[in-house]
Write a structure and sequence with these properties.
alpha/beta, Rossmann fold, four-stranded parallel sheet, 13 helices, 13 strands, globular, binds pyridoxal-5'-phosphate, binds zinc ion
């Protein structure tokens, strides 16, 4: 089958060194991130080309880095709903509020996007095993894709991640290695594992390709807004890869001319118990001081030493947005608020965007008539212990008197 990708080469984000599209983690000269560059001059598709395309991330195949279509793994990732939140919007006084609901991806988080590209690239590079360092969601996403690809998979995650995520990873038949330490310690061990055993640790070994998956979220938002970009977006931040990828996705879709140049305010949000980037933002600093011992219910975003931290600061500041931090109490309240107003059940890492939204409204940082997208990145069923079922212990005998007695109390 014909190659469709417009990939041209790789380029170091800092020193500009160029590489062929090889199996590479970071720039060999300066260790900075390396970006995939596309040749738009070869582009033969237009906005109209999308009508008959699959409703998955592969609808943007030209702007994705997989060269041989036969290596594509496809478990129906992406094209998740962009929900117009009329109820929550009314409550907050916002006319154009949207949730990008990535909680409904095949493994129930946005991580299916980078995992699908990364595992496809691993096949293309002839890797015999894949893996990742994970706070849980990436582990599930890589494990599912490895299962489909027929590759063994090794997930290194802190021992205390949620039982639901461990169950998922185990069901997909990956080896889950519980590391007695933080995510950063698991990540360091994963680097060693990739060298020692040759595993393609997708968030490290082939990171330039891995991060390309997440920009499809930006493409979809643009397409679902009828080829417009929103005025503002709020993105949960751990390593900062998602925020960097979405920013890149918005500029690419502008560069190819599908949307007019639009000054989107990019806002990032962390949990107070692990907010190294928000701390640097508040202090007006350009460097990010790692948090040694993260402590938050939003375990999926508990990354103390974020790889893309400096880029998050740059992209957010350049856009006029903010990086905020929200408390565990605000997170729980936001999970319930989103569920009861819009019928969307998210995990804490997804609810941070709703928590920051409320604060921005209070502080006058979002206008009534602005369009604003909150990224909801993971599913509430992954963290079921977070919303206690207090008040729902309505066990009764199977008769109408018992039911009436109960209803009277309400
Ligand atoms: C549900 C969820 N949201 C957001 C993030 C943040 O992603 P990133 O590390 O790309 O900043 C993660 C990371 O694990 C996550 O699991
Ligand atoms: Zn470099």
């Amino acid at each position: 089958m014909m190659t469709t990708t417009l990939i041209s080469h790789l380029k170091c984000r800092e020193c500009g060194t160029e590489y062929e599209p090889i199996r590479i983690a970071v720039c060999e000269k300066c260790y900075a991130p390396v970006d995939v560059i596309y040749d738009y001059s070869k582009m033969s598709f237009t906005k109209d080309s999308f009508v008959n395309r699959p409703r998955t991330i592969w609808r943007y195949e030209e702007l994705l880095p997989v060269i041989e279509p036969k290596y594509r793994i496809d478990i129906n990732v992406g094209f998740t709903p962009l929900v117009k939140c009329t109820n929550l919007g009314r409550l907050l006084g916002l006319e154009h509020l949207y949730v990008k609901n990535d909680a409904v991806n095949p493994t129930y988080s946005f991580k299916d996007r980078p995992a699908e590209i990364a595992v496809s690239k691993a096949l293309e590079f002839g890797d015999k095993a894949v893996g990742c360092a994970s706070t849980g969601n990436l582990g599930a996403a890589v494990a599912a894709h490895a299962a489909k690809a027929g590759l063994p998979c090794y997930v290194l995650a802190p021992v205390d991640i949620e039982a639901e995520k461990i169950a998922q990873i185990t069901a997909y038949n990956a080896k889950i290695i519980g590391v007695k330490g933080t995510y950063d310690e698991a990540n360091r061990l994963a680097v060693m594992a990739s060298e020692e055993f040759g595993w393609n640790i997708v968030n490290i070994t082939t990171r330039p390709y891995y991060v390309e998956g997440s920009k499809t979220m930006a493409f979809e938002i643009a397409e679902q807004l009828d080829w417009k970009l929103p005025d503002q977006i709020i993105i949960p931040v751990a390593s900062g890869a998602l925020l960097s990828s979405i920013t890149r996705g918005f500029s690419q879709i502008e560069e190819v001319g599908f949307v007019p140049p639009t000054p989107v305010k990019i806002n990032g949000v962390q949990a107070e118990g692990c907010s190294p980037i928000a701390n640097a933002f508040r202090a007006g600093e350009d460097i990010v001081k790692p948090v040694e011992k993260p402590d938050t219910i939003a375990k999926s975003i508990a990354i103390g030493d974020p790889g893309d931290g400096i880029y998050v600061l740059k992209y957010v500041r350049d856009s006029g947005g903010i990086v905020g931090a929200v408390s565990d109490e605000e997170i729980v309240e936001s999970i319930k608020l989103l569920a009861r107003t819009e019928g969307i059940f998210t995990e804490p890492a997804g609810a941070v965007s709703i928590a920051l939204l409320q604060r921005m409204v209070r502080e006058g940082k979002v206008a009534k008539d602005e369009s604003i997208v909150c990224c909801v990145t993971g599913n509430g069923l992954k963290t079921s212990e977070i919303v206690p079922t207090e008040g729902n212990g309505f066990d009764i005998e199977p008769n109408i008197d018992a039911l009436s007695a109960l209803v009277e109390k309400w």
